[in-house]
Amino acid sequence: xxxxxxxxxxxxxxxNVAAAARADDSAKPQxxxxxxxxxxxxxxxxxxxxxxxxxxxxxxxxxxxxxxxGPAIRAAIVKYGVQPTALMTLGAGRMVWNLREGPATIGxxxxxxxKERVEALKRASDLAKVCGVKAVHTHCGFIPENPNDALYxxxxxxxKEVVSYARENGQTFLCETGQETPITLLRTIxxxxxxxxxxxxxxxxxxxxxxxxxxxxxxxxGPHVRGLHAKDGVYxxxxxxxxxxxxxxxxxxxxxxxxxxxxxxxYAGPVTIEREISGERQETDIRASAQFLATIIDREYGRA
Length: 304
Description:
By secondary structure, the chain is of the alpha/beta class.
């Protein structure tokens, strides 16, 4: 009886270790890619591209998020076995991606376009609910660094309105890093005060905007990170322009340190590759990025 019990105990331990190993493997970040459904690219075409590139997840841009995209997105999800981890929209109006005009044109901070962009984000939330997508994602814009600035209070109020709407729809609201310093974003999350506001850490944007770097940003924002854009770039040298995006592995992002820190934080969410060029070179760079990142993830998290 004692030997039998010992065998049962040992078998149980082995089973538990095997289960833990499987759980640990499933706790690795999963690679995906950024794609968009536009007037020229249908949801079917967008998700077919994800499948062709060898991914099973993506962040899906939905433009102005018209409700009629819902059935097409749902059908493409089933057809290709690709799951969007977030729907993305920036909303209407002119946006200038630099340091001179950006503060007045990007996100929900500028008063002139705020109403239309909030409406687009609410439509994206409704669309995500219909499609079974659990997050909505955007650039909030240049959130003021000074918490005493009247525009900061407005930013907190309008962001809270959208985050509350997403919460009612059972979603996380992802605020992409870049236009504000990490501590400003942390302050905003605290002042909004809702548990479904989180961070999409764009590894390159912090560098491109000269607002920080991703390893240090994880010290500040780590517990709030629920999404990640894998991208690379170099710091700006033009005081009014952004830095330059580069192929992953050739810029200033310290990817091994990033994933080492993510592992310490037990991050197992999506790692979504973004390459902001077009044509054949984009596809080549995305495939090379996937191999580069998979090697680092295996090393830092352990191979399957």
